[in-house]
What does this fold into?
Amino acid sequence: MVVARSLAEAIAHLSAGGARVAAGGTELAASLHIDGPRTSKVVDISQLDELKGFDRTPDGGLRIGALSTLDDVCFHPAVQSAYAALSRAALAADRPDTRARATIGGNLCQRPRCWYLRADYLCVRAGGDLCFAADGDNRYHAILGGSRCHMVHPSDIAPALVALGARARVVGSAGVRVTPFEEFFLPPGLDSTRENTLGPADILTDILLPPSPAGWASTYRRASEPRTGYALAGVAAAALVIEKTVAEVSVVLAAAAPVPWRSREAEAQMAGRQPTPRLVRDAADEAMADAMPLADNRYKVDLFRALLVESLEEVCGLRRPV
It folds into this structure.
């Protein structure tokens, strides 16, 4: 392991090949179990203060350094007041004993928790031809978007950022780029061996949140597996209701698909209409209309419907916040 003293030094190490980044270190052992044969060097970026902290952006939004811890994110006053979905997702994302070390960037870039990948099966994501979850034990796997790989994206933070319209700032050997988080994550149909658009010498440095308009409400709700605490189903929702009409709405599902799954169907059902309990139930049904559960995870459809109703009622003012 090498400790990078600057962002340029970290990128230089990564550019040499065979290296991976370590930040808070909470997922390092699991990642090395998957990627160890291809990893000759670990680059520790935890000392890079420029990747920490919170700042207002010129447009009135908020910049969060990728090395900020989940506790930092969850309890930051600006996040709690203007970006409630992100605060709640950070609180749900990990156990209390690790939130103080786990970083928001690490949470977004963690490797899948699929037990076939982590048990060294030569699955599609490991470069093979099969997804063993299709016919195996698939109780925690995808019900949407899993045509080649049925893993679910492991981050609670990611759906909240997509729902809030956040962007990723990435620095690498080719320079700096800014990408909407909705485009940052890669579905298996585009690349079944990578979870995001980061190249071998790229580092996620900042999360950029847009300004939060007055009246904009957001939330994150999830159902968890009792033993591990991992999400079985989660919903990030945000809405702006003006004069009893849904002016804007976004709905993104967690633990539903290999990427944070935006439900355009639910959004279309809600947009431009007066929010009512019936409308919310119809939107939840639309979100699940294309679900294709596997043999062991049909329960997820009902879980998502219930969470969708609760979340949409909350952001539309029909239910009190959690």
In short: The chain has a mean pLDDT of 93. Residues 34 and 119 are 9 Å apart (CA to CA).
